[in-house]
Amino acid sequence: MRGLVLEGGGAKGAFHVGALKALFEKGYAFDGVMGTSIGAMNGAMVAQGDFDLLFRLWNNITPSAVLGLDDEYMSRLRERIDRDVIKYLWGELKKAVAERGLSTDKMEKMLDTYLDEDKLRASPIDYGVVTVDISDGWSPVEIFKDEMPYGTIKDYILASAYFPAFRRKPLNGKKYMDGGIYDNMPINPLIRRGYDNITVIRTLSYMPHRKVIDKTVDILYIKPSEPLGRTLDFSNEKIQYKIKLGYYDCLRTLDGLKGKRYYVYAAEDADYFGVMESLDYGVFEKLAKTEGMEDASKRQILAAMAKAMGASDDNLAGVILDWLEPYAEAYEMERFRLYSLEDFIKTLLAQVKKLGIERIGERKDLDHKKRFMALNNLT
User: Fold this and answer.
1) 3-class DSSP assignment, residue 304
2) Is residue 260 within 8 Å of 326, Cβ to Cβ?
3) pTM score, two decimals?
4) What pLDDT band is residue 183 in, cutting at 50, 70 and 90?
5) Which phi and psi angles does 310 have, rounded to 5°?
6) Which of the two ends of the chain, N or C, has the fewest CB atoms closer than 10 A to its terminal CB?
7) Which of 103, 219, 201 has its CA nearest to residue 158?
8) Strands 126-133 and 139-144, how do they pair?
9) pLDDT at 167 over 50
10) Does the CA dihedral 15-18-19-24 come out positive or negative?
11) Residue 373 CA to chain centroid, in angstroms?
């Protein structure tokens, strides 16, 4: 059976959505879904068969929709903190203290709008959450939909997402807290349920997770290539970025794309030399001079660069892209796009020609001379 695990992380859950889009486009299907906190919320929508609805929800999300905070003030907070912003935040803080935590009313309203318990229960896809019972010695609770009394699925999802700062409502006379304090990446409940093929979409949250109890289970991890920011930053601009990152990082894993920040289809190592040698030398020569490789041929430049950086036959492609990606960033190449190697290099050289070689001099972090000491023998 194939299972899906969604790691908790608040606003970082936008990464789930982008990754899921890529997985479903590739034909993936799941027999069961397990999640913690925001992973439990996203997982419920997947399990009830409403990913398209989930995707629309995240694309239109705002701080006010999730936390009840004023969108304008939160936007201003990201730009600068002025007197009005401080006054607003102070007022919200006092209200939260007086009410013993941040309200979850908006989260409940969102679940009431998008969660269909009857549809979820009727779905053939298994579904479970993790939470912690703090009324009974801080006991972890791993529970699936067939174990939840009717009418309580929404409550268990909220229980899984009760961040310590939130005001918590009792469930069956007990109080619960965010399942992330016990297991933020609940792989083991699916293993105990009999799943032997599991896809995990991570958020790289700092919350704890349990060691995998069965190393023979086939587990595919989809990980973000960079930190996903603050847990409660639901600004739409940041959410959109995380969705794109999830989509392309997932494709990198599924399709074996090369690159650390960019997304480049792999080619045979011999093709990398061929592509470079087929390019017009004029612009490339200017770029090469910044590495102290004047008068070297293209093949000499590539061969020496590979040797200097310790490339072997099986990692030449990655080494070349490691060398070129900082320049692609400096020259503002579009990141969220799928490139062939030839397209990547030609786009970079076109940007160099358009914006001028001087731009490299403006970036002190692009001084690679120490990495290319071995090139001195060839120039």
Assistant:
1) helix
2) no
3) 0.83
4) very high
5) 75, 30
6) N
7) 103
8) antiparallel
9) yes
10) positive
11) 36
Q: For all residues of the chain together, what is the average pLDDT?
A: 80
CA distance 136 to 244: 41
Instruction: Name the amino acid, one letter, at 138.
Output: W
| Contact (CB, 8 A) for 129 and 40 | yes
Q: 226: which 2 tokens?
A: 């960079």
pLDDT in tens, 310-329: 555 556 666 777 778 888 88
The secondary structure of residue 170, as a DSSP letter, is: P
Would strands 197-201 and 176-178 be described as parallel, antiparallel, or unpaired? unpaired
Closest to 246 (Cα-Cα) out of 73, 7, 49: 7
Q: Which alpha helices (H) appear in the chain, and where do they start and end?
A: 14-25, 38-47, 51-59, 63-67, 71-79, 83-98, 105-114, 117-122, 153-160, 188-192, 236-255, 269-278, 281-289, 298-308, 316-330, 341-355, 358-361
Distance CA 47, CA 273 (A): 47
As a whole number of angstroms, the distance between CA 108 and CA 115 comes to 10
